Amino acid sequence: MNWVKAVSQERFPEGARDVMKLGDREILLIHERGKIYAVDNVCPHMGQRLEEAEMTDDGFIVCPRHRSTFDLLTGEVKAWAPWPPGVGRVLGLFSKAKPLPVLDTRVEEGAIWVAVE
Question: Is the peptide bond between 13 and the residue preceding it cis, with omega within 30 degrees of 0?
Fold first, then answer.
């Protein structure tokens, strides 16, 4: 695993979000509730970009298209394509539930670092 310097800590305050290319991946970096999260910027359901996704109070990210919901710490699926009602469940059948890829982060030497393969 390689640690890549993503951004200066002072340039990434609480509430910040940024999409960046790290290696061959597009990563969404989020600073929320005192924690730095790094996830792939696409929903594993149908590839919707996640930079405009909602965050829940309990640490989940909700895809704006079909409201698939993932735990930001683990990537675990909490809801798979529940929207729109009825139709979303059918759409969810077209692809098996997959976790959201998450990457480890750390704050060190005044910078935010992300672990990439």
Answer: no
Bridge partners of residue 49, in order along the sequence: 42
Digit-coded pLDDT (tens) for 70-97: 999 999 999 988 776 766 566 656 678 8
Torsions phi, psi for 45 (to 5 deg): -75, -65
Listed as own residue / partner, the contacts of 57-66 with beta carbons closer than 8 Å and 24 or more positions apart are 59/32, 59/33, 61/30, 61/100, 66/91, 66/92
**Is CATH 3.40.50.170 the right assignment for the domain spanning 2-116?**
no
The domains of the chain are located at: 2-116
pTM for the model stands at 0.87
